[in-house]
Amino acid sequence: MIEERGRVLSVEDGAVWVETIRRSACSSCQARAGCGQSLLQRLGGGARQGFIRVLDDRDCRVGEEVVVGIPENAVVRGSSLVYMVPLLSLFGFALLAQALGAGEPSIILAGFSGLGLGFFAMRWYAGRLGADPDFMPQIVGRVDKPDIVSGTHERSDY
Fold it and tell me: Can you name the residues that pair with 18 across neighbouring β-strands?
């Protein structure tokens, strides 16, 4: 389970809106000098805060700190689909055009058409997965009050 801490912004029926603070792992990575993510982080690219809708079947209150989680297999499956389907579609359409004896400009056009169709298919499929609870982040715990002496936060699972 991939987990991130956040704060509840609003509560609705069966779900809550959570604000998360994005943290970069660049300080602990050995490749930070040649990494595009590190460059974007230094330039301020992208928002530092994320607002996500999280499934919740427990009682959460506005302002409460929670731990949000999503299964690793959902992230792996989703990212592999998003990358592989358009790429395979691009190559498939280009190879099909070549097999049909099309010229080079037609093969290139067929490849880009396949890429566009792959992106469209993934957009449609992502819309269908939007209602699947296996692909939605869920609240997996609450962050208790900070310990005054040590300055740490304890996590309490439900």
Answer: 8, 52
Report DSSP state, residue 56: -
Per-residue DSSP letter, 152: -
What domain range is 41 assigned to?
Answer: 2-157
Cα-based distances in Å from 30 to 17, 35, 38: 35, 10, 11
The Cβ of residue 139 has, within 10 Å, a number of other Cβ atoms equal to: 22
Query: Where do the H-state alpha helices sit in the chain?
Result: 36-43, 72-99, 104-129
User: What DSSP designation does 134 have?
Assistant: G
Percent of the chain at pLDDT > 90 equals 24
Look up residue 17 and give its amino acid: W
Those residues whose C-beta lies under 8 Å from the C-beta of residue 139, and which sit 6 or more positions away, are 16, 18, 54, 55, 56, 58, 60, 66, 67, 68, 69, 158
The tokens for 145 are 């009050």
Question: How many domains is the chain partitioned into structurally?
Answer: 1
Is the model's pLDDT at 19 over the cut of 60?
yes
Helix (H, G, I), strand (E, B) or coil at 7: strand
Q: Which of 63, 50, 26 is nearest to 137 (CA)?
A: 50
pTM above 0.70, yes or no: no
